[in-house]
Amino acid sequence: MTDTASRSRNEPDATPTPASGGDTGFRLLGPLEVTHHGEVLEVPPGRQQALLAALLLRPGEIVSAPTLIEQVWGGDADRTVLNVCVMRLRRSLKDPNRELVRAEGNGYRIAAAPDTVDLHRFRKLCERAGTARDRGDPAAERDALHQALALWRGDALSGIASSVLQAEVVPILEEERLAATERRVDADLDGEAHAEVIGELRQLVADHPFRERFWCQLLLALYRSGRQSEALDAYRTARERLADELGIEPSQELRELHHRILTSDPTLLTPRPAEPSVPRVVPAQLPPATAGFSGRRDQLRQLDRLLDDTEPAPTTLITGPPGAGKTTLAVHWAGRHRDRWPDGQLYIDLRGYGPEPLVQPIEALAYFLRAIGLPTDQVPPQQAEASALFRSRIAGRRLLIVLDNAATVDQVRPLLPGGGDCLAIVTSRDRLTGLVAKEGARVLSVDVMADAEAQTLLSDAVGDARLAAEPDAAAALARLCGNLPLALRITAADLINHPQRSLTRHVDRLRTGNRLDALQVADDDGTAVRAAFRSSYARLPEPVRRLFRLLGLFPGSEIGLESAASLAGVEAAATEPLLDRLISAHLVTPRGAERFALHDLLRLFAQELGQEEDADAEREAATRRLYDHYSRVAVAAANRMYSFVVTLPLSEEAARIPVSFDDDTTASAWFDTEHPNLVALVRYAADRGDHLDACRLAATMQSYLHSKMHAVDWLNVARAYLFAARQIVDFRAQILAHLSLANLHRSRAQRNAAIKHFEQALALSRHSGWVDGQSITHNNLSGVYDYEGKLRLTVHHLHQALELRSPTRDITSKAVVLSNLGRALLRLGHVEDAVDHLERATNIHQRRGARVSESRSRASLGEALCELGQHHRALALLNHAVAVQRELDDRMFLPNTLCRLANAHLDVGQTDLAAELVPTAMALVRETGHRRSEAWVTYVTARVHEHTGCPDAALDGYAQALRLSRERGNGYLQVQAMIGMSSAHHQLGQRESARRCIDKALARARRFEYALLERQAEAVRVALS
């Protein structure tokens, strides 16, 4: 920046005595400088200077600790770091008694009068210039502006090491300087100092080529100095710069001035006449800001950008749910920047949502016109005329207009400025999309607070110490308030009024009592959360209100369009516009394509309204429709994805409407989206005593939860499933629930618990005469013995599964058993038989379109073909299986399939490809907690180390695999790990250790009839001899 402003006349002393008479002065308009009794104090650069600057921007005011930490450290520091920096700053300022920098409230205050700071003297002089202009004293106006700009010694906050201050504050200060420079040049031109300002203006247009006001002033100065041709040349330069670099034409003001110069308009030679001395009303109607404002950092930054835009939108809409703090945000920001609108700030509550009648536009216009000085008898009674007069009266002025609690677009439009330097901020619970579409309003959405912001709000209000003493209770308080600012402030007020009450006790009160009753201030119904919600709800038509009430019945986190339609009992096409109205009123939040959510407190409010306004029969019918919808769609998705799924019969109403999925990917995506809701619905149904519905829903989820390894949800659903099945004495449901729990324990290597549930399932199957239940149990039980390496017992249970299988069951159930039998036969060394079984299973799954089961059979077939030396075909099968399992997110089997593929790559010498696969497999195992697969992945990782020439790492890996397989009872893998350890010892030259390992492996392989491993061990033993 070129310091052009300092080359003006009547410059004051650069270090004037502070007007307050204090003995310390501060300078921010350039490099930071502090003087004390005429002596310059050295404040070390870095954090101390940044901290001092942050305090001096608001002299005499408390600046909160979070604000200081944000402005000085970018938010990356704690209170201790701030306190240490304050201590050092006091030392630099020779303030040992803490009289200058004082700790107050939740922050610090610098006890300096504003006129000891050059920035605030600059602003005061600019205000003095405006007053002089209003009273028709151009000489005083000119003198005040010259004095104001002389205070600038370079860039504001020059050298201050704060990215936040440099990005957010410095541009604002620079804009103030340039605006004052424009006013001062206007005053000089009115004082006929035309030639004197030409040089300065040439520099200004060079530094700020897109600031067209400077071009206008340069053209006018040249023309009035008798240099018309230079003025025309300057216009051509301006037009070319704007066109070449921005692709725009000059503004209307600049074009009109050019035309007047081109035609030698004689009126241009006459400076503007001094304005007559008339009283000027500067309204200051902003209500008091909320004490202890905190948070909303991102929204404040977005609002601050309005000040930086060269062509800001004249209207900004702050929209959000009731209680989100829209008004608080608007008033806080407006108050913080009130000096940017020297012609005043207008404010009106349009009462869009209160019990009082809405403020009509003509009422608001009359109020505003009187506020800016128009006598009451001159206010037009017609709305259109009053609106036009209002825009005319504020044209050319810098006014901020806050239109709070607007209900409709029609209520707002007549009150908007026509453009220029005025800004209107509208707050509303509705989206008011017409303002965006027609007026081009910018939208700033305000939702509930982030967790950290909610904690800061409570801390600022209640005190750090109180929250720090009970951090868990503080977090629970914020959650129970739903991070809603209104609820948080009410809770804080209650805690302040009861200083002896612990946070834990307050949490208990909110949890056990009526939370909406608790979230209001005594004797002030207007502050209640319920009242805020009700005022938005009351404005809606009954069909929309009914849907809102029914949404309170939904137990999940977010609901889809089809599910909402089932609650309402109408078609989705009719439900969508109702949801749109609720979204517009911010009573429902959109969460992606056709997904919607209710804030926790709004859910409570909807439930309360439903109990008050809807008959029990209607609520029961809606719940029944929801059960039927989810069970119907979930059965279709499960049948599409899993050939081995066994569900319970649907209700007659649910079965009446057929549902199908076109492919596995779509079905999987539906489960991925809806599975949290299904979990919630199962528990909700069980808690309500709707046990049959709980069983129906739980049955649809078992294969999905197993495949995706959602262990926590799997356990919760299976337990609820078993409990509900026992209540209705449904043996089939009990059997399936036991099988689900058994498979969960099996996947987590909890053998005894798994066997217990399998035995109960088998006993119930026999007792109830459900033969297919016995078949399913034998098939599942075989997996326990397969893992333990008890292969003969594994084969026995699988043959039982085939023999007991009902001929009426779907053929895919047979394919599942064939696939399991093929894997067991492979380990017993019957490779050709294994391939035969696996090929039959794969073909059945392929014909039936069961891609999940097909991919698992393909993976096992690929492993078997490797033993026959058919590696090319094996790699094709394994790559295909990996692709499908990744597509369908089959996390249960994908780690094993990746390891099989890695083994196949190692067999053909493709070590690099194998090394790329095992980290992904291990990451999946750790993510899902699938403990049975961990030892296997560890073993294959060791094989990769061995093949890459790292026998030490391989030996460690094999030893770890042996330890894990012993802990988890995997007999087959123990032998594999011993063979691997022997090979690693051999590579390291440790022949005796290698022999001991291979002897143990061979003995165990023979004992358990691991024919395949026996052959491998004998080959290693021969190599050692």
From TrEMBL:
Domain (OmpR/PhoB-type): residue spans on this chain: 15-112
GO biological process entries: phosphorelay signal transduction system; regulation of DNA-templated transcription
DNA-binding region: 15-112
Listed PROSITE patterns: OMPR_PHOB, TPR
Pfam families named in the record: BTAD, TPR_12, TPR_7, Trans_reg_C
TPR repeats: 815-848
SMART domains (UniProt xref): AAA, BTAD, TPR, Trans_reg_C
Protein's recorded name: Transcriptional regulator, SARP family
Organism of origin: Stackebrandtia nassauensis (strain DSM 44728 / CIP 108903 / NRRL B-16338 / NBRC 102104 / LLR-40K-21)
